[in-house]
Amino acid sequence: MHEITLCQRALELIEQQAAAHGARRVTGVWLKIGAFSCVESSALTFCFELVCRGTLAEGCTLHLDEQQAECWCENCQQYVTLLSQRVRRCPQCQSNMLQIVADDGLQIQRLEIEQE
């Protein structure tokens, strides 16, 4: 389960930003999950709550934005959205000549804090 490691690293960054802005508490975190990141949302939510215990982010609201699976089809020369990350064929022409356009990582999009 790599979600715990992702959450630990995200918390480090959150705490750095919170300290830089004089936060006494983090009340909300918005994360964007890349379509090809292999991150399980429920596991991420569980791990995030776990790593935040005893920190200034404990009890904050976690907002997840799951990015769609976007690819460029070399065959039909257009952007396509896949219904599943597991299906790697163009829905237009059935080609498997797809280049991943969507991000495959996890990004902190926004923080909501209470200042001192």
UniProtKB/TrEMBL annotation:
Ni(2+) binds at H2. PROSITE patterns: HYPA. One of its GO terms (molecular function) is nickel cation binding. One of its GO terms (biological process) is protein maturation. Gene3D superfamilies: 3.30.2320.80. Pfam families: HypA. Keywords: Metal-binding, Nickel, Zinc. Zn(2+) binds at C73, C76, C90, C93. It comes from the Bacteria. HAMAP family: HypA_HybF (MF_00213). Involved in the maturation of [NiFe] hydrogenases. Required for nickel insertion into the metal center of the hydrogenase. Belongs to the HypA/HybF family. This is Hydrogenase maturation factor HypA. It comes from Pseudescherichia vulneris NBRC 102420. The gene is hypA.
